[in-house]
Design goal:
The complex is a heterodimer. Chain A is an alpha/beta fold. Chain A has 12 helices and 9 strands. Chain A folds into 2 domains: 4-179, no CATH class; 193-315, no CATH class. Chain B is α+β, with helices and mostly antiparallel strands. Chain B folds into 2 domains: 3-66 and 76-204, no CATH class; 214-337, no CATH class. Chain B has 12 helices and 12 strands. In chain B, β2 and β3 (32-37) form a beta hairpin. Classes of the chains: A alpha/beta, B alpha+beta. The A-B interface holds A 29-32, 34-39, 57, 61-62, 65, 67, 69, 130-133, 212, 216, 218-222, 224-226, 238, 240, 246-250, 274, 277-278, 280-282 and B 29-32, 34, 52-53, 62-63, 134-136, 206-207, 232-233, 235-239, 242-243, 251, 253, 255, 264, 266-269, 272, 274, 277, 286-288, 319, 321, 323-327, 329-330.
Amino acid sequence: MVDPKKLQDKAKEILVRDDVRRLIGWKRGTYGYEAAPAVIKDASDAEVLIFDPTCVQNPASFITLEEKLPVPRGAEPDTRKVAVMVKGCDSRAIVQQLVEKAYDREDVIVLGIPCRGVIDHRKAEAMFGDVAAPVEVSLNSDKVTLTVNGEKKEAKREELLMDKCLRCRYPNPLVSDFLLDGEVEKFADDDFGDVAEFEKQPPADKWAYWEEQFSKCIRCYSCRNVCPMCYCVECIVTKLRPQWTRRSTDISENTAYHIQRAWHLAGRCIECMECQRVCPVDIPIMTLNRKLTRDVKELFDYEPGVDTEAQPLLASYNPQDPEEYIM
Amino acid sequence: MADYRFAKEKLADVLSGLTDYKVFAPTVTGDVVRFLEVADPAQVSLDYTNSNVPPKELMFPETETLFRYRLGQNEFDATVPSPEEKRLIFGIRPCDAQAYSIVERLYRWDFNDPYFVNRREGATLVGLACADPCANCFCPSVGGGPASEKYLDAIMFDLGDTVYLKTITDRGDAVAKALSSVLEPAGDSEKKAAEKQADDALSKIQRSIDTAGIPEKLPSLYDHPFWEQFSDRCLGCGICTFLCPTCHCFDIQDECEAFDGRRARMWDTCMFAEYSVHASGHNPRPTRKERTRNRIDHKYSYFPTKFDVIACVGCGRCINYCPVNIDILDILEKSKEAQVKEEKTA
């Protein structure tokens, strides 16, 4: 566990620097098992910062989410750095953003946090009920301890952790300027068994499944907005002039949206699973993304978000690339 | 007003007994609860907290055709729902019913929106009292309650094996009449159990807000930096507004294929940048700060100023589903604390 004092002190030390604009981390949420992303601009506010197993959000998303208004004539743009706290999975987003030149390496200060997993608040609610009072959560090698309304509760790690954590291959940040805790040993692995299992179904069944899932979509675009890799200034699905995707919700437009997004993330998705976590109607978006991740890995031996020196998948070419699909 | 009961295992008989109505009820698909027209009574569940998507979609669908047209012809077919069509919303929560009454003030204001109004006029609301409100429910703070009858034609209490049904209006009595073969008169024990459940549910509400003074104060905070505490982490997605039972904004689009087209309206949200962008390209709400402010100001200041009612029913959905924990109660509390700077005198 990261000592909150150490984390806050480091944050303060960074925030007082003249070349730092803001720091993104986490703070305690207003209820239950929630944490909230915290955007801190003043060192005196750094005391709200925490890291615990409720800190599920990916702070890397907020680097590119920041809106920049046009700079008034005669004024200089604010080029100060953004500091960001990341878990292992979150750090892959920064690596991939750097690979794609979303910003320069010197624009960010990365505070890495080795992570043993974060909890899925839906799983916690199912086990311990939904509660208004914020819940304290801690984690050790085999169990999660929660303080719900003053009462101590325990659960096994695998009962409460996010699915992504149960197959986590990168618990330690892959890019960081400061590490806020000692590295942890890798505790899980990923064989993409879920993808193989899903693929076994006949096409008609898969289509029926996705038809049901996409029909639920209300096109709130939370999956897109929370995604650290969806940082286009103007997204094709919301572009109005010309319009490429209709704003109406129906199975056709909803399917077009989800397929577009999945393809745009091929070789780019870093599997932070935020899209699926935020979906208000439980669309299993990661099932699509993981299929593409697995295919990209098998076909091109490529994994996004692990090496800052890598080329983007679609910008790289290898004469040995398989080409069975070309007649 | 009369009291009835039916065995919960007879729920399917109740639903199929309503042959005069088009019946909509909370339907479970996976983990998602939504109000759908009843196709299979077995999928209908009374065992849910608040539906993921509010039943506003029954009056104001996500996407709705206003009329169809054919290029080259000066004719169009308006697709206005008939007020004669009897629709029954079965198992609606008191807060969602209250939301209809709020949205209605706008849709019947300077123009009667026939799409919303006709559906509402044809609708009978058979409510379902809450036994277990969610952690973020705060309906008593905004004029509602877990067993509020105010906006319903009849109300049901799920008492375990039995459902107690109390009719409130003539429309409610008409439903009871249609179900005379399934319903039995309720006894004192059911009435008492329902009263107890209502009291218990009220005591289970964990969150609240004193709204006094908020509508008057919010305009003075228009340029206050406190909004940034929330907007800095806002994703700008549509969850809070699309899932809000009182949010009622829509966009209008023409969709044309070859020679046939339709004009349709679909949910829109002030949380999207393109919502307020002008044809010139100028956007008067250029960042999420202005958009976050607008959502709160609209619900807790503009709407009460114009229509005498806060446009929030305390269902908790915007809090429960916000991916970044932007909490409307937290914003309102902080708005009370925010100090307004004295106007500088020249």
